[in-house]
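Re: the request from the purification team.
They wanted to know what the chain is likely to look like in 3D before they choose a buffer screen. I agreed to run a prediction and write the result into the notebook, where they can find it.
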Amino acid sequence: MSLCFFVTQLALTKHAADVQLKVSDLSVRPLWQNFKIKKVLSATGFHQIGLLLNFNKTPSRKQLLTAVLQFMLSVSAYKSQVLLYRLDVNLLGKSSASKNAASPEMSKLPSLTPVILPRNQLRMSTPWLSRPEKPEEMEEKIRLARSKSDVDDEFKDHIERAKTWHQITVIAQEDEMKANESLAKYGRPRTTPTKVKVRSGSTASQQRTPVKKERLLVIPEVDQRRDYAGFVLQQRMDNIDVRHKTEVMKLYLPYIQTTPSS
């Protein structure tokens, strides 16, 4: 029971930070009066102000809160990983096993049964004795497939834009004609030549130097520029991958009922 209340406390703090909890609340008092649990809560960032149980909302403490919540959900046999992404009142309080026993809930996708594994991996737990889909489930599958396809297409565009940015960035300084040809492939409109100010002192036998002419990069500088562009590209690709997985997870969350115990 203490584990259920502990997970509830962490989930409420993560997803409903505006809710003020008191140390005298029925779900908080057993935790705050337990020395070991109080020590864990204090290390996570909780402290008492009068009768209120306050949380230190610094970025590092929020990250620690998420990590502790994820760990507690992993070791719990009844709490769903859904609480890591959104607040579900049906999963708060006492163990969901007793709730499900009193009022069983049918899955919207019984032929797929999506579940979240302890490491936040989404898998389909298709039962061996599958039955043909009903028309309602087939319509639900079609809607889910279309939403998944839209999300995939959106993030494919993000990947293409990131690669395009990378190709433009790594181009070394070239003559103006080649630079214009390279940029034209990525949609830059053609511009008309403008007047350019040149440095004074030039003669007919000397090449005129523009006032704002940029210095050409030497080979080590070009290599450094390309290496950094590759690093930034990898960072962007990793960020896009994380956002893609998060959006896909959000699509499947309404269909997830429980998770297998670890």
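For the purification team: Confidence is low (pLDDT under 50) at residues 96-106, 172-177, 258-262.
Please add any questions underneath this entry.
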